[in-house]
Design brief:
Shape: flat
Distance between the termini: 54 Å
CATH architecture of the largest domain: Alpha-Beta Complex
Order of helices and strands: HHHEEHHEHEH
């Protein structure tokens, strides 16, 4: 970084703190979580898997190509099979901007996570860390908006 000495000093101090102490506030939460019984994590995993499956089924029924995750609470989809103008063009950004009005649902364009935006352009992701009834409603809205 090139800047006035006072600014460089402030940035260096912040970087030092963030690099080595970023998770300090979370250590208490981690300690509590480590004390929980295995049954808590088994139930949590089963609940998240069931929610993933509800949303994945709805996305599949709507016509998305669905990539089921095994380690996050996002489902990645390919929008190109939907057949809409935006999805055929593989423009995940435009698709995500239009989705709330079209279906009352939001998604995140995966291209924001790619060094080469074009590679991730046709992929969008949906979060399934929601109440099951919210996911079922979103799945129905997507099916109604896109299923042929």
């Amino acid at each position: 970084m090139t800047a006035a000495p006072a600014l460089v000093s402030a940035v260096r101090a912040a970087k030092q703190y963030l690099t080595y102490v970023a998770s300090g506030p979370f250590q208490y939460a981690v300690a509590e979580a480590l004390a929980l019984p295995d049954s808590y994590f088994d139930a949590f995993r089963a609940d998240m898997r069931a929610k993933r499956d509800v949303l994945a089924a709805g996305l599949t029924a709507a016509g998305f190509e669905v990539y089921r995750t095994a380690g996050t609470y996002f489902i990645t989809t390919d929008i190109r099979p939907l057949g809409t103008t935006l999805s055929k063009e593989g423009d995940g950004f435009a698709f995500c901007r239009a989705l709330p009005e079209r279906a009352g649902v939001v998604a995140i364009p995966n291209a924001v996570f790619y060094d080469h935006k074009g590679t991730g352009a046709p992929y969008v992701r949906f979060a399934f860390c929601k109440r099951t009834e919210v996911l079922a409603d979103a799945a129905e809205r997507l099916r109604a908006a896109f299923a042929h």
